[in-house]
Amino acid sequence: MSVTHALPETDVVVVGAGFTGLYALYKLREFKLRVQAFEAGSGVGGVWYWNRYPGARTDSPSHIYQYWFSQELLADWNWNERFTPQEETERYLNHVADRFDLRKDICFNTRVTAANYDEKTHRWIVETDTGTRLSARFLIMGSGGLTELVTPDFPGKDSFAGECYHTARWPREPVDFKGKRVGVIGTGATGIQVIQTIQDKVGHLTVFQRTAHYTIPMRNPKLDDAARAELRARYPELREMVQNTTTGFDFNPDPRGYFEMSPEERRAQMERLWADGSLVFWVGAFADTLMNAEANEEISEFVREKIRARIKDPAVAEKLTPRGYGFGTRRVPLETGYYEAFNRDNCTLVDISATPITEITPTGVKTSDGEYPLDVLIYATGFDAGTGALTRIDMRGRNGVLLRDSWKEGIHTFMGLQVHGFPNMFMVMSPQSPAAAFCNVPTCSQQQIDWIVDCIDFVRSQGREAIEPSAAAEAQWVAHHDEVANTTLIPKTDSWYMGANIKGKRRSLLAYAGGVGVYKQLCDEVKAKGYEGLELA
Ligand code: NA7
After folding, report:
1. Can you tell me the distance from the alpha carbon of 185 to that of 52, in angstroms, rounded to the nearest whole number?
2. Which residues of the chain fall below pLDDT 50?
3. Alpha-carbon dihedral sign for residues 203, 208, 212, 218
4. Which atom of ligand 1 is nearest to the CA of 146?
5. Which of 96, 129, 123, 111 is nearest to 12 (CA)?
6. pLDDT at 6
7. Pocket-testing residue among 48, 216, 330, 331, ligand 1, by greatest number of atoms within 8 A of Cβ
8. In the 3-class helix/strand/coil scheme, how is 65-90 assigned residue by residue?
């Protein structure tokens, strides 16, 4: 007997109402499918809803960090800066939700807690923390790559008596830092944005740094009507371009390797792209920045020089200078005035690689070197990236196998889109696709959603009920993914790209490193060949 007959039914459940979930809703409606989305937050925005900490901003320029699906939307939305702050991106996503009347299909304040695949009916039974149970033919996980936050398990972590925040759960009301002793743990992209933004608003700032990051100074001009018109004229070209470049940006890397240029040429190239104030220095300067260790070391040294030059105290400069790993093998944050924060009298840098945090006390943070008294403690300690939002759900596929168990010995997916054993479950911004880390979210989530919705349409047009990758096709993809990963220098460095920030997580490169354009081509080929590698039921 089927367990689903008494349940309300829909065609597709979408998890999440961020960039991905909203576009999925729009697209599925085009195909006349019944959809129900669930969103844990009280509003749309996903990562841009939760990460409302001071200074939160994209490191991708606004003229590509947007939806391309509607000419009207492109015509009527005006970006105000080259790199958009959180509140503007959140406003944009609210505008999209309203403009296309997407809210009516979203159930807010509702977290999906379980999803069980019923093999007899080929349907997913989705459960939420508000007690909803719903049966859906297809499940689209738009739950985001940077969703499941990490708070280190320091002894005494719950004992702190002052104000305590994680950047990914920042309150809606403004936090008053005036005159307060504020501590920030973590100096990744998030920590850097917080530190540079609050440094002149606090009484005293103590930064607990475990690893110094390579950064690039952001150049962020305001956009006036003329600048916007110029960019808008390029939208048709940009729309095509971003889907086909290596990283989803509006440029490709220089095809020349570092040592193919003369010393003068490569120095000039670095200075020119450094001055652009964007991520082009990281992923556009040379064909082999992330492939050739010798070239990478010279580029790393260029960046170290730039960093050192901005810090007055040589001892502090030394601590802030990244060493022991190569430039770009971790996410490179853009910064504005970050290093100058450490030139102020009210800022202390604590190198916790030398003097580790031993305890959180009611009054502050204790390291092996002594206690730092604090009124406010901020965790900018990152995420269980890529897999966290998927494995925290009790998701059971065929034979009742849990996704988190299935991935215990290593992540396995077919192109980051589906998992063998989990029919009709599709993932976006997921492990083993470029979207997980090496592409900007709007570009890659639109490509993945388009592919997924076409695939769903294919299943229905064949009069079939389920689709799932074969074990062989999946194994082939994982082998290709690993092979490409190992041509880069990225696996040599500990980072969230490698899962190294999560205890017990098996080390593997989270995102497909073969390039956004190549990935799209491979996805298109699978489709053109009648969804080769996928099996219908
Ligand atoms: P990241 O990049 O994972 O950075 C987390 C930071 O927190 C980083 O400096 C970590 O040090 C530090 N951290 C994490 N755990 C600890 C412990 N146990 N002790 C001390 N310090 C710790 O997260 P973000 O939120 O900054 O950025 C995530 C992505 O969001 C970013 O890459 C963008 O794509 C947007 P570590 O460097 O590991 O030594």
Report:
1. 17
2. 1-4
3. negative
4. 30
5. 123
6. 76
7. 331
8. CCCCCCHHHHHHCCCCECCCEHHHHH
